[in-house]
Amino acid sequence: MKLNMNRIDRRRFLRGTGLALALPMFGSLAAPVARGAAARANPKRLGCFYFPDGVPMPLAEDPAYQDWAWFPHRNGDDFTFTKCMQPLEPLRDEITVLSGFSHPKSRNSHGHNNADQFLTGAATGGGDMEYANTISLDQEYVKVVGDQTRFASLVMSTDGGTGTARGAHTISFDRNGRAIPAEHRPKQIFDMLFVKSDGDSARRLALSRSALDDMLVDARSLRKTLSSADQQNLDEYLDSVRQAEIKVEKAKRWINAPLPKIDGDHLNLELTTDEPREYLQTMFELIYLAFKTDSTRVATYQIGRENGVGRSDHLARAVGFNLAHSLSHETKNPGGWKNFAIYCQFLNEEYGRFIGKLKQTPEPAGTGTMLDNTLLLFGSASSAFHLSRNYPLILAGGKQMGFKHGQYIDHAGSNPQGGAWDGGQEPWQKKVTHEDTPLSNLFATMLQRLGSPTQAFADSTGTIDNI
Questions:
Q1: pLDDT tens for residues 176-235?
Q2: pLDDT digit string (tens) for 318-358?
Q3: What is the 3-state secondary structure (H, E, C) of 275-290?
Q4: Which domain holds residue 180?
Q5: 172: closest CA among 113, 102, 116?
Q6: Is residue 153 part of a domain?
Q7: Residue of 274, 292, 340, 413 lying closest to 52 (CA atoms)
Q8: Contact present, 153 and 298 (Cβ < 8 Å)
Q9: Which of 84, 121, 183, 388 could form an S-S bond across to 103 if both were Cys, CB 3.0 to 4.6 Å?
Q10: How many separate domains does the chain show?
Q11: Rounded distance, CA 341 to CA 69, Å?
Q12: Does 38 map to a domain?
Protein backbone atom coordinates (compact mmCIF):
# COMPACT_ATOMS: atom_id res chain seq x y z
CA MET A 1 0.00 0.00 0.00
CA LYS A 2 1.31 3.43 -0.91
CA LEU A 3 1.95 5.60 2.15
CA ASN A 4 0.66 9.16 1.77
CA MET A 5 3.20 11.17 3.77
CA ASN A 6 0.94 14.24 3.78
CA ARG A 7 -1.62 12.40 5.91
CA ILE A 8 0.76 11.25 8.65
CA ASP A 9 -0.28 12.49 12.07
CA ARG A 10 2.51 13.92 14.23
CA ARG A 11 2.31 10.86 16.54
CA ARG A 12 2.30 8.24 13.76
CA PHE A 13 5.33 6.08 13.18
CA LEU A 14 6.51 3.40 10.75
CA ARG A 15 6.30 -0.25 11.79
CA GLY A 16 8.15 -3.15 10.24
CA THR A 17 9.86 -6.39 11.24
CA GLY A 18 8.74 -5.85 14.81
CA LEU A 19 10.43 -2.46 15.15
CA ALA A 20 8.98 1.02 15.47
CA LEU A 21 10.74 4.02 13.97
CA ALA A 22 9.75 7.50 15.10
CA LEU A 23 9.27 10.03 12.32
CA PRO A 24 10.50 13.61 12.51
CA MET A 25 8.04 16.44 12.02
CA PHE A 26 7.89 17.05 8.29
CA GLY A 27 7.36 20.49 6.83
CA SER A 28 5.18 18.84 4.18
CA LEU A 29 2.59 18.14 6.85
CA ALA A 30 1.32 21.64 6.11
CA ALA A 31 0.83 20.85 2.39
CA PRO A 32 -2.93 20.06 2.59
CA VAL A 33 -3.52 23.66 3.67
CA ALA A 34 -2.20 24.87 0.32
CA ARG A 35 -4.76 22.64 -1.40
CA GLY A 36 -7.61 24.21 0.55
CA ALA A 37 -7.84 21.71 3.42
CA ALA A 38 -8.56 22.96 6.91
CA ALA A 39 -5.48 24.09 8.82
CA ARG A 40 -4.34 21.98 11.73
CA ALA A 41 -4.86 23.79 15.01
CA ASN A 42 -1.69 24.80 16.78
CA PRO A 43 -1.12 23.27 20.22
CA LYS A 44 -1.87 25.55 23.17
CA ARG A 45 0.59 25.18 26.03
CA LEU A 46 0.69 26.55 29.55
CA GLY A 47 3.73 27.05 31.76
CA CYS A 48 3.60 28.49 35.31
CA PHE A 49 6.65 29.51 37.35
CA TYR A 50 6.89 30.60 40.99
CA PHE A 51 9.67 32.35 42.87
CA PRO A 52 9.52 33.00 46.64
CA ASP A 53 10.30 35.86 49.03
CA GLY A 54 8.74 38.70 47.05
CA VAL A 55 10.66 41.43 45.24
CA PRO A 56 12.52 44.65 46.04
CA MET A 57 10.05 47.49 46.60
CA PRO A 58 11.90 50.54 47.91
CA LEU A 59 9.66 53.56 48.40
CA ALA A 60 9.74 56.35 45.81
CA GLU A 61 11.78 58.61 48.07
CA ASP A 62 14.46 55.93 48.52
CA PRO A 63 17.59 56.46 46.32
CA ALA A 64 17.35 52.77 45.32
CA TYR A 65 13.88 53.22 43.84
CA GLN A 66 14.94 54.35 40.38
CA ASP A 67 17.35 51.50 39.65
CA TRP A 68 16.47 48.59 41.90
CA ALA A 69 12.67 48.45 42.28
CA TRP A 70 11.13 45.39 40.65
CA PHE A 71 8.04 47.00 39.11
CA PRO A 72 8.61 49.21 36.04
CA HIS A 73 8.27 52.98 36.05
CA ARG A 74 5.23 54.52 34.35
CA ASN A 75 2.60 52.23 32.84
CA GLY A 76 0.87 51.24 29.61
CA ASP A 77 3.25 50.85 26.68
CA ASP A 78 5.34 53.80 27.91
CA PHE A 79 6.89 51.88 30.81
CA THR A 80 10.62 51.61 31.48
CA PHE A 81 12.38 48.71 33.14
CA THR A 82 14.68 49.21 36.11
CA LYS A 83 18.10 47.58 36.30
CA CYS A 84 16.44 44.75 38.19
CA MET A 85 14.27 43.98 35.16
CA GLN A 86 16.74 45.00 32.43
CA PRO A 87 17.39 41.41 31.22
CA LEU A 88 13.82 41.38 29.90
CA GLU A 89 14.20 44.52 27.77
CA PRO A 90 14.87 42.59 24.51
CA LEU A 91 11.59 40.76 25.12
CA ARG A 92 9.40 43.71 26.09
CA ASP A 93 7.12 43.17 23.08
CA GLU A 94 6.53 39.59 24.19
CA ILE A 95 5.60 40.21 27.83
CA THR A 96 3.11 42.03 30.03
CA VAL A 97 4.03 43.06 33.57
CA LEU A 98 1.12 43.26 36.01
CA SER A 99 0.68 44.81 39.44
CA GLY A 100 -2.25 45.17 41.82
CA PHE A 101 -3.40 41.54 41.60
CA SER A 102 -3.70 39.08 44.49
CA HIS A 103 -5.95 36.38 45.92
CA PRO A 104 -8.59 37.88 48.26
CA LYS A 105 -8.52 34.91 50.66
CA SER A 106 -4.84 35.32 51.51
CA ARG A 107 -4.28 39.09 51.57
CA ASN A 108 -3.95 39.12 55.35
CA SER A 109 -1.73 36.06 55.53
CA HIS A 110 2.01 36.00 56.13
CA GLY A 111 3.85 35.79 52.82
CA HIS A 112 5.62 32.58 53.80
CA ASN A 113 2.31 30.70 53.54
CA ASN A 114 1.56 31.68 49.99
CA ALA A 115 3.14 29.30 47.49
CA ASP A 116 0.42 26.72 48.18
CA GLN A 117 -2.35 29.00 46.95
CA PHE A 118 -0.56 30.84 44.13
CA LEU A 119 -2.28 28.81 41.39
CA THR A 120 -5.40 27.87 43.40
CA GLY A 121 -6.68 31.00 45.14
CA ALA A 122 -7.75 28.84 48.09
CA ALA A 123 -7.93 29.95 51.72
CA THR A 124 -4.89 27.95 52.82
CA GLY A 125 -4.38 30.57 55.53
CA GLY A 126 -2.05 30.43 58.48
CA GLY A 127 -1.96 29.91 62.21
CA ASP A 128 -4.56 27.45 63.47
CA MET A 129 -6.71 27.57 60.34
CA GLU A 130 -7.44 24.09 59.08
CA TYR A 131 -5.54 23.48 55.88
CA ALA A 132 -7.47 22.79 52.70
CA ASN A 133 -6.58 23.50 49.11
CA THR A 134 -8.31 23.32 45.74
CA ILE A 135 -7.38 22.57 42.14
CA SER A 136 -4.57 24.63 40.62
CA LEU A 137 -4.72 26.57 37.36
CA ASP A 138 -2.45 24.12 35.52
CA GLN A 139 -4.52 21.08 36.50
CA GLU A 140 -7.71 22.83 35.46
CA TYR A 141 -6.18 23.13 31.99
CA VAL A 142 -5.04 19.50 32.15
CA LYS A 143 -8.74 18.61 32.00
CA VAL A 144 -8.72 20.00 28.45
CA VAL A 145 -5.40 18.76 27.03
CA GLY A 146 -4.09 16.13 29.43
CA ASP A 147 -5.17 13.19 27.31
CA GLN A 148 -3.58 14.54 24.14
CA THR A 149 0.04 13.95 25.16
CA ARG A 150 2.05 11.19 26.78
CA PHE A 151 2.29 13.18 30.02
CA ALA A 152 -0.72 15.14 31.22
CA SER A 153 1.57 17.65 32.92
CA LEU A 154 5.14 18.12 34.03
CA VAL A 155 5.43 19.16 37.68
CA MET A 156 8.85 20.38 38.80
CA SER A 157 10.49 22.27 41.64
CA THR A 158 13.98 22.94 42.89
CA ASP A 159 13.29 21.21 46.21
CA GLY A 160 11.20 18.26 45.01
CA GLY A 161 8.31 16.34 46.52
CA THR A 162 5.32 18.06 48.10
CA GLY A 163 6.79 19.81 51.15
CA THR A 164 4.38 20.63 53.94
CA ALA A 165 1.11 22.49 54.35
CA ARG A 166 1.90 26.21 53.83
CA GLY A 167 5.46 25.17 53.01
CA ALA A 168 4.82 23.61 49.62
CA HIS A 169 7.51 22.24 47.32
CA THR A 170 4.97 22.16 44.48
CA ILE A 171 2.51 24.65 43.04
CA SER A 172 0.35 21.95 41.40
CA PHE A 173 -2.71 20.57 43.19
CA ASP A 174 -5.22 18.03 41.89
CA ARG A 175 -8.97 18.44 41.73
CA ASN A 176 -9.30 17.45 45.38
CA GLY A 177 -6.66 19.98 46.46
CA ARG A 178 -3.99 17.35 47.07
CA ALA A 179 -0.41 18.36 46.38
CA ILE A 180 1.13 16.76 43.27
CA PRO A 181 4.74 15.78 43.99
CA ALA A 182 7.32 17.74 42.02
CA GLU A 183 10.47 16.30 40.49
CA HIS A 184 13.75 18.15 41.08
CA ARG A 185 16.38 15.81 39.60
CA PRO A 186 17.26 16.65 36.00
CA LYS A 187 18.27 13.11 35.10
CA GLN A 188 15.01 11.61 36.35
CA ILE A 189 13.04 14.21 34.40
CA PHE A 190 15.03 13.57 31.22
CA ASP A 191 14.77 9.78 31.57
CA MET A 192 11.03 9.97 32.16
CA LEU A 193 10.56 12.08 29.03
CA PHE A 194 13.03 10.55 26.62
CA VAL A 195 14.54 7.24 27.80
CA LYS A 196 12.68 4.00 27.09
CA SER A 197 11.55 2.10 30.16
CA ASP A 198 12.32 -1.58 30.60
CA GLY A 199 10.39 -4.23 28.70
CA ASP A 200 8.48 -5.28 31.79
CA SER A 201 6.28 -2.17 31.75
CA ALA A 202 3.27 -3.86 30.17
CA ARG A 203 3.21 -6.61 32.78
CA ARG A 204 3.44 -4.08 35.62
CA LEU A 205 0.61 -2.04 34.13
CA ALA A 206 -1.57 -5.15 33.97
CA LEU A 207 -0.80 -5.89 37.61
CA SER A 208 -1.60 -2.29 38.56
CA ARG A 209 -4.97 -2.57 36.83
CA SER A 210 -5.71 -5.84 38.61
CA ALA A 211 -4.76 -4.36 41.98
CA LEU A 212 -6.98 -1.34 41.39
CA ASP A 213 -9.93 -3.58 40.52
CA ASP A 214 -9.44 -5.54 43.74
CA MET A 215 -9.26 -2.35 45.81
CA LEU A 216 -12.52 -1.05 44.35
CA VAL A 217 -14.34 -4.28 45.19
CA ASP A 218 -13.05 -4.20 48.77
CA ALA A 219 -13.87 -0.49 49.13
CA ARG A 220 -17.49 -0.90 48.01
CA SER A 221 -17.96 -3.63 50.57
CA LEU A 222 -16.32 -1.60 53.31
CA ARG A 223 -18.39 1.52 52.59
CA LYS A 224 -21.58 -0.09 53.91
CA THR A 225 -20.07 -0.34 57.40
CA LEU A 226 -18.82 3.25 57.72
CA SER A 227 -20.22 6.43 59.24
CA SER A 228 -21.18 9.35 57.02
CA ALA A 229 -17.92 11.20 57.74
CA ASP A 230 -15.86 8.10 57.03
CA GLN A 231 -17.84 7.46 53.85
CA GLN A 232 -16.85 10.94 52.65
CA ASN A 233 -13.19 10.20 53.37
CA LEU A 234 -13.52 6.89 51.54
CA ASP A 235 -15.16 8.60 48.56
CA GLU A 236 -12.19 10.96 48.31
CA TYR A 237 -9.89 7.95 48.39
CA LEU A 238 -11.93 6.20 45.71
CA ASP A 239 -11.67 9.28 43.54
CA SER A 240 -7.89 8.93 43.80
CA VAL A 241 -8.21 5.30 42.75
CA ARG A 242 -10.33 6.30 39.75
CA GLN A 243 -7.71 8.85 38.76
CA ALA A 244 -5.07 6.13 39.04
CA GLU A 245 -7.24 3.95 36.74
CA ILE A 246 -7.29 6.70 34.17
CA LYS A 247 -3.50 7.01 34.34
CA VAL A 248 -3.03 3.26 33.93
CA GLU A 249 -5.31 3.17 30.89
CA LYS A 250 -3.50 6.13 29.35
CA ALA A 251 -0.12 4.51 29.99
CA LYS A 252 -1.32 1.37 28.19
CA ARG A 253 -2.22 3.45 25.14
CA TRP A 254 1.24 5.00 25.00
CA ILE A 255 3.38 2.05 25.99
CA ASN A 256 4.24 0.97 22.43
CA ALA A 257 4.59 4.47 21.02
CA PRO A 258 8.27 5.37 20.60
CA LEU A 259 9.69 8.13 22.74
CA PRO A 260 11.02 11.27 21.04
CA LYS A 261 14.65 11.09 20.00
CA ILE A 262 16.54 13.81 21.85
CA ASP A 263 20.28 14.43 21.95
CA GLY A 264 20.95 15.23 25.59
CA ASP A 265 24.73 15.49 25.26
CA HIS A 266 24.56 19.25 25.86
CA LEU A 267 22.86 18.73 29.24
CA ASN A 268 24.57 18.01 32.54
CA LEU A 269 21.89 15.83 34.07
CA GLU A 270 23.75 15.21 37.33
CA LEU A 271 23.45 18.84 38.40
CA THR A 272 22.44 20.04 41.85
CA THR A 273 21.93 23.51 43.25
CA ASP A 274 25.65 23.55 43.98
CA GLU A 275 25.83 24.77 40.36
CA PRO A 276 22.86 27.13 40.63
CA ARG A 277 22.89 28.95 37.31
CA GLU A 278 23.47 25.83 35.24
CA TYR A 279 20.87 23.97 37.30
CA LEU A 280 18.23 26.61 36.60
CA GLN A 281 19.12 26.68 32.91
CA THR A 282 18.82 22.89 32.71
CA MET A 283 15.40 22.85 34.37
CA PHE A 284 14.13 25.43 31.89
CA GLU A 285 15.71 23.46 29.02
CA LEU A 286 13.88 20.30 30.07
CA ILE A 287 10.56 22.15 29.94
CA TYR A 288 11.49 23.54 26.51
CA LEU A 289 12.27 20.03 25.22
CA ALA A 290 9.08 18.60 26.71
CA PHE A 291 7.06 21.29 24.92
CA LYS A 292 8.98 20.99 21.66
CA THR A 293 8.47 17.23 21.44
CA ASP A 294 4.80 17.57 22.46
CA SER A 295 5.46 15.25 25.40
CA THR A 296 3.21 17.54 27.44
CA ARG A 297 1.45 20.86 27.02
CA VAL A 298 1.34 21.80 30.70
CA ALA A 299 4.30 22.46 33.00
CA THR A 300 4.88 24.05 36.40
CA TYR A 301 8.16 24.87 38.07
CA GLN A 302 8.48 26.17 41.63
CA ILE A 303 11.88 27.81 41.52
CA GLY A 304 12.06 28.12 45.30
CA ARG A 305 10.05 27.43 48.42
CA GLU A 306 9.09 30.10 50.91
CA ASN A 307 10.85 30.79 54.23
CA GLY A 308 14.36 30.02 53.07
CA VAL A 309 14.22 26.31 53.79
CA GLY A 310 15.72 23.77 51.41
CA ARG A 311 18.17 23.55 48.56
CA SER A 312 16.44 26.27 46.55
CA ASP A 313 17.76 28.87 48.98
CA HIS A 314 21.21 28.17 47.51
CA LEU A 315 20.32 29.62 44.13
CA ALA A 316 21.57 33.04 45.26
CA ARG A 317 25.10 31.67 45.11
CA ALA A 318 24.89 32.10 41.35
CA VAL A 319 25.40 35.84 41.90
CA GLY A 320 27.76 35.77 44.87
CA PHE A 321 25.35 35.68 47.82
CA ASN A 322 24.89 32.89 50.32
CA LEU A 323 21.15 32.37 50.84
CA ALA A 324 18.31 33.88 48.80
CA HIS A 325 15.75 34.34 51.58
CA SER A 326 18.06 36.41 53.77
CA LEU A 327 18.34 39.02 51.00
CA SER A 328 14.69 39.99 51.55
CA HIS A 329 15.43 40.57 55.25
CA GLU A 330 18.54 42.68 54.70
CA THR A 331 17.10 45.46 52.54
CA LYS A 332 17.43 47.90 55.46
CA ASN A 333 21.22 47.47 55.34
CA PRO A 334 23.44 49.62 53.08
CA GLY A 335 23.19 48.21 49.56
CA GLY A 336 20.42 45.85 50.66
CA TRP A 337 17.95 46.78 47.94
CA LYS A 338 20.62 46.41 45.28
CA ASN A 339 21.68 42.98 46.54
CA PHE A 340 18.12 41.69 46.58
CA ALA A 341 17.52 43.14 43.11
CA ILE A 342 20.67 41.52 41.72
CA TYR A 343 19.29 38.13 42.75
CA CYS A 344 15.91 38.92 41.14
CA GLN A 345 17.83 40.16 38.09
CA PHE A 346 19.45 36.71 37.86
CA LEU A 347 16.04 35.01 37.93
CA ASN A 348 14.77 37.42 35.25
CA GLU A 349 17.81 36.72 33.11
CA GLU A 350 17.35 32.95 33.14
CA TYR A 351 13.60 33.20 32.67
CA GLY A 352 14.21 35.59 29.76
CA ARG A 353 16.61 33.08 28.23
CA PHE A 354 13.82 30.49 28.29
CA ILE A 355 11.29 32.88 26.74
CA GLY A 356 13.81 33.82 24.06
CA LYS A 357 14.41 30.20 23.10
CA LEU A 358 10.68 29.61 22.64
CA LYS A 359 10.51 32.77 20.52
CA GLN A 360 13.38 31.62 18.30
CA THR A 361 11.86 28.17 17.68
CA PRO A 362 9.30 27.82 14.86
CA GLU A 363 6.23 25.87 15.89
CA PRO A 364 6.88 22.23 14.89
CA ALA A 365 4.42 21.33 12.12
CA GLY A 366 2.43 24.45 12.96
CA THR A 367 2.39 28.22 12.46
CA GLY A 368 4.17 31.00 14.30
CA THR A 369 6.74 30.34 16.97
CA MET A 370 6.54 28.09 20.01
CA LEU A 371 6.18 31.22 22.15
CA ASP A 372 3.17 32.35 20.12
CA ASN A 373 1.44 29.12 21.12
CA THR A 374 2.70 28.93 24.71
CA LEU A 375 1.23 30.98 27.55
CA LEU A 376 3.63 31.61 30.43
CA LEU A 377 2.98 32.99 33.92
CA PHE A 378 5.93 33.97 36.12
CA GLY A 379 5.47 35.44 39.57
CA SER A 380 5.31 35.32 43.34
CA ALA A 381 2.53 35.53 45.93
CA SER A 382 4.47 38.13 47.93
CA SER A 383 5.63 41.57 46.93
CA ALA A 384 7.17 43.69 49.69
CA PHE A 385 8.50 42.01 52.83
CA HIS A 386 6.06 39.12 53.54
CA LEU A 387 3.24 41.18 51.98
CA SER A 388 0.50 39.00 50.46
CA ARG A 389 -0.77 41.70 48.12
CA ASN A 390 0.22 43.28 44.82
CA TYR A 391 1.82 40.11 43.46
CA PRO A 392 4.71 40.67 41.02
CA LEU A 393 3.58 38.99 37.79
CA ILE A 394 4.82 38.61 34.22
CA LEU A 395 2.65 37.12 31.48
CA ALA A 396 4.39 36.09 28.27
CA GLY A 397 3.58 34.41 24.96
CA GLY A 398 0.25 33.26 23.64
CA LYS A 399 -0.02 35.79 20.82
CA GLN A 400 -1.85 33.26 18.66
CA MET A 401 -4.36 32.95 21.50
CA GLY A 402 -5.10 36.66 21.28
CA PHE A 403 -2.76 38.06 23.94
CA LYS A 404 -1.13 41.41 23.26
CA HIS A 405 2.01 42.42 25.07
CA GLY A 406 4.54 45.22 25.39
CA GLN A 407 2.75 46.82 28.33
CA TYR A 408 2.70 47.32 32.08
CA ILE A 409 -0.80 46.93 33.51
CA ASP A 410 -0.70 48.78 36.82
CA HIS A 411 -3.69 48.05 39.04
CA ALA A 412 -1.77 48.90 42.21
CA GLY A 413 -2.31 52.65 42.11
CA SER A 414 0.16 55.38 42.89
CA ASN A 415 0.98 54.31 46.46
CA PRO A 416 1.70 50.57 46.70
CA GLN A 417 2.92 49.36 50.08
CA GLY A 418 6.63 48.72 50.31
CA GLY A 419 9.79 49.85 52.00
CA ALA A 420 12.33 48.02 54.11
CA TRP A 421 11.28 46.24 57.27
CA ASP A 422 12.65 48.14 60.27
CA GLY A 423 11.85 45.47 62.85
CA GLY A 424 8.41 46.80 63.76
CA GLN A 425 5.06 45.94 62.23
CA GLU A 426 5.49 44.03 58.99
CA PRO A 427 3.80 45.24 55.78
CA TRP A 428 1.37 42.30 55.70
CA GLN A 429 0.10 43.31 59.16
CA LYS A 430 -0.66 46.88 58.12
CA LYS A 431 -4.01 48.18 56.97
CA VAL A 432 -4.87 47.54 53.33
CA THR A 433 -4.39 50.80 51.42
CA HIS A 434 -5.57 49.55 48.03
CA GLU A 435 -8.08 46.91 46.95
CA ASP A 436 -6.33 44.54 44.57
CA THR A 437 -7.95 42.88 41.56
CA PRO A 438 -8.62 39.14 42.10
CA LEU A 439 -5.80 37.21 40.45
CA SER A 440 -8.34 34.56 39.51
CA ASN A 441 -9.76 37.08 37.00
CA LEU A 442 -6.49 36.72 35.14
CA PHE A 443 -6.65 32.93 35.51
CA ALA A 444 -10.17 32.82 34.07
CA THR A 445 -8.97 34.90 31.13
CA MET A 446 -6.03 32.58 30.55
CA LEU A 447 -8.18 29.45 30.68
CA GLN A 448 -10.73 30.81 28.24
CA ARG A 449 -8.09 31.75 25.67
CA LEU A 450 -6.40 28.39 26.12
CA GLY A 451 -9.67 26.83 25.00
CA SER A 452 -11.07 25.71 28.32
CA PRO A 453 -14.88 25.76 28.65
CA THR A 454 -14.39 27.18 32.16
CA GLN A 455 -16.15 30.51 32.55
CA ALA A 456 -14.80 31.21 36.04
CA PHE A 457 -12.01 30.01 38.28
CA ALA A 458 -11.81 30.03 42.09
CA ASP A 459 -13.14 33.42 43.27
CA SER A 460 -12.94 35.23 39.92
CA THR A 461 -15.39 38.07 39.37
CA GLY A 462 -14.78 38.56 35.66
CA THR A 463 -11.98 38.62 33.11
CA ILE A 464 -9.18 40.99 32.10
CA ASP A 465 -9.88 42.73 28.79
CA ASN A 466 -6.70 44.68 28.07
CA ILE A 467 -4.24 41.82 27.63
A1: 999 999 999 999 999 989 886 655 555 554 555 555 566 666 666 777 677 877 776 766
A2: 999 999 999 999 999 999 999 999 999 999 999 999 999 99
A3: CHHHHHHHHHHHHHHH
A4: 47-184+292-450
A5: 116
A6: yes
A7: 340
A8: yes
A9: 121
A10: 1
A11: 7
A12: no
